[in-house]
Amino acid sequence: MVTQQTDFPNFISPNDWQSVQDLIEEVQREEQCAIFAKTLFQWDLAVKMFRKVEMKRFIIGTPNELDFKFHAICLGALVSLGSALSFSARGFAVEELQKFNVTRDQIEAYVEELKQSFREWHHGFTKPEIKSLKNLIFGEA
Amino acid sequence: MRPEIIVTLHEAKYDLRFGLGKDKDVLMKKYQDALAAAAQKFGVMGPQIEVAVAQDFGLWVRQERLPKIPPSVNSRD
Predict the structure, then answer these.
(1) Does some domain include residue A127?
(2) Residue range of the domain that includes B13
(3) Could you read off the pLDDT of A59-112 as tens digits, one per residue?
């Protein structure tokens, strides 16, 4: 049976379609927020796990060649993901981010902190240059 | 001998690293200020200071007997 246009109730107006579209957009927006929140949460968890291992291997212990390699790989991935999240955060209103207890500034600071770690351990300074800097700061022989 | 300005930098880094995430931007500003002050004192760039004191940070953590893996790292706060 072919539905005739005249079968539609005459109470459906363009305004009704607009309402449906608004609702769909709202659902899509909530879905975007949920995906963003989930990724942010998992990234935060990964950073915390990374810091835990870093503390054990780099701060308390003495890192070996493999530690340096994985440290650089993990940092690179976390900075990359964090930068993407920081960029995505610009698409959300301050109030929307507040729902996740986070601000854009905090995400950016989080990413900057990871970059700071990278600068510390994966730099282009030579051993004599580092020794010279340590002499300057600590007065070492 | 560890200069006081480096102790201040280590303190700022420890707070930044293991402080609660809510104040991360404030703690980052505090760290950057401490780094800039140290760089100015020794007449070098910030990244040079970061590289030179990276290993000393671990030594300072042990000397100060600070929690090696603070509870905040294990939580999802």
Answers:
(1) yes
(2) 4-67
(3) 888 899 999 999 999 999 999 999 999 999 999 989 989 888 889 999 999 999
Q: Do A48 and B28 touch (CB under 8 A)?
A: no
Residue of A nearest to B15 (CA): A113
Residue B12 touches partner A, C-beta closer than 8 Å:
no
> What is the interface pTM, i.e. ipTM, of the complex?
0.83
Range B52-55, long-range pairs (CB < 8 A, 24+ positions): B52/A130, B52/A133, B52/A134, B52/A136, B52/A137, B53/A137, B53/B6, B53/B9, B53/B10, B54/A120, B54/A121
**Has this prediction a pTM greater than 0.80?**
yes
CA distance A129 to chain B (A): 9
Predicted pLDDT of residue A90: 92
- Whole domain around residue A29: which residue ranges? 14-138
The mean per-residue pLDDT over the stretch A14-32 comes to: 88
Residue B77 pLDDT class (50, 70, 90 cuts): very low
* E strand intervals along chain A: none
Looking at the 3D structure of chain A, how many domains does it have? Answer: 1
Round to whole Å and give the CA distance between A70 and A54. 10
Is residue B59 within 8 angstroms of chain A, CB to CB? no
Our count of domains for chain B comes to 1
Q: Which among B1, B21, B51 is the nearest to A125, CB-wise?
A: B51
Min Cα–Cα distance to chain A from B14, Å: 11
Q: Does a structural domain hold residue A87?
A: yes
